[in-house]
């Protein structure tokens, strides 16, 4: 029985859009992080209350990893994902391996987001709306790359 090939473009366009959203959201969070430490009067749009406050999250010790804001690592990760997803649009056998890699990266993103989701809920006790957006992006990327690599 002949295996059907997936219509890659149906999946790659949303994947590229999601990765771009991840880049933009992470860039906003990185900028917000730096502004929180350099501009005394700064307050992000999502500093709504004590429990819903991106500023509280970005000022926590958990917001730094290896000397850089976690959000900056997000910009790097989503940019790499985006750049790898560009050539994956071509439906060839070589690209199947690239989809496997993209799936593993999306899985890593999702596991990291589960960890940081736990940290924000249990340790920081304040939620970041834009962080939540990146969690949704990561899990959507995981789902779509899983479909493609099947």
UniProtKB/TrEMBL annotation:
Subcellular location: Membrane
Pfam family, one: VKOR
GO cellular component: membrane
Membrane topology field: Multi-pass membrane protein
GO MF entries: oxidoreductase activity; quinone binding
Alphabetical keyword list: Disulfide bond, Membrane, Oxidoreductase, Quinone, Redox-active center, Transmembrane, Transmembrane helix
Domain Vitamin K epoxide reductase, chain residue ranges per copy: 8-149
CDD domains assigned to the protein according to its UniProt record, in alphabetical order: VKOR_3
Lineage: superkingdom: Bacteria
Transmembrane segments: 12-31, 64-86, 98-118, 124-148
SMART domains according to UniProt: VKc (SM00756)
Name of the protein in its database record: Putative membrane protein
Species per Swiss-Prot/TrEMBL record: Candidatus Electrothrix marina
């Amino acid at each position: 029985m002949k295996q059907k090939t997936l219509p890659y473009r149906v999946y790659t366009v949303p994947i590229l859009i999601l990765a771009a959203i991840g880049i933009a959201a992470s860039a906003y969070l990185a900028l917000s992080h730096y502004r929180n430490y350099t501009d005394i009067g700064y307050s992000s749009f999502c500093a709504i209350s004590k429990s819903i406050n991106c500023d509280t999250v970005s000022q926590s010790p958990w917001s730094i990893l290896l000397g850089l804001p976690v959000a900056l690592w997000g910009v790097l990760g989503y940019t790499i994902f985006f750049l790898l997803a560009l050539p994956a649009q071509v439906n060839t056998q070589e690209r199947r391996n690239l989809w496997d890699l993209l799936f593993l990266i999306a899985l890593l993103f999702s596991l990291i987001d589960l960890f940081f989701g736990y940290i924000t809920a249990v340790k920081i006790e304040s939620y970041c709306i834009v962080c939540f957006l990146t969690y949704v992006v990561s899990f959507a990327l995981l789902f779509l790359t899983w479909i493609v690599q099947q």
